[in-house]
Specification:
single chain, alpha+beta, Immunoglobulin-like, 2 domains, 7-stranded mixed sheet, 3 helices, elongated, VHL_sf, VHL_tumour_suppress_b/a_dom, von Hippel-Lindau disease tumour suppressor beta domain-containing protein, VHL_beta_dom_sf
Length: 156
């Protein structure tokens, strides 16, 4: 992920296990999703697989442990209360857990089109599209990207 102020790459990973957090994830979509904990090396560890729409799951975690969610079928980025990466809040002795709603983001038209087209086209198909050349160049550059590279563009 890039820092918007100076374009430096910031590695997302768990830092320590000092301050506890008790949360409840709620699938507020109509999609099955996978929820990942980002470990101390920045690797995605699948915590919930095919988490069903409307379901809730209680998690005991720590404030410096990031979480991400993806659509189980399309691998699209999902959001935690409006954020693509979730850092749990500190537990302050509350009797109840913090409910964190996981939902589908709202994309602008250009990002949504690129998202859909990347699933249907190969790099060789893109030049034949009847769209502006600047978009063709952008699509060609993105067609061979890894998911993490693509994710940076969608989230930014």
């Amino acid at each position: 992920m890039t820092n918007s102020t100076d374009n430096t790459v910031v590695k997302v990973c768990s830092q320590n296990s000092d301050i506890p957090s008790y949360i409840t994830f709620k699938n507020a979509t109509s999609r099955k999703m996978d929820v990942y904990w980002v470990d101390f090396k920045g690797k995605y560890v699948k915590y919930l697989k095919n988490f069903s729409p409307g379901n809730v799951h209680h998690i005991n975690t720590f404030v410096t442990h990031p979480w991400i969610a993806r659509d189980s079928v399309t691998n699209d980025v999902l959001m935690f209360n409006g954020k693509s990466i979730f850092y749990p809040p500190a537990w302050n002795g509350e009797q109840s857990r913090n409910e964190i709603r996981i939902h589908v983001p709202v994309f602008n038209l250009k990002k949504r089109c690129i998202q859909v087209l990347k699933d249907y086209l190969t790099k060789n198909d893109i030049p034949s599209l009847e769209i502006p050349h600047t978009l063709i160049e952008e699509m060609c550059m993105r067609s061979n990207m890894t998911f993490r590279e693509y994710e940076r563009i969608i989230i930014d």
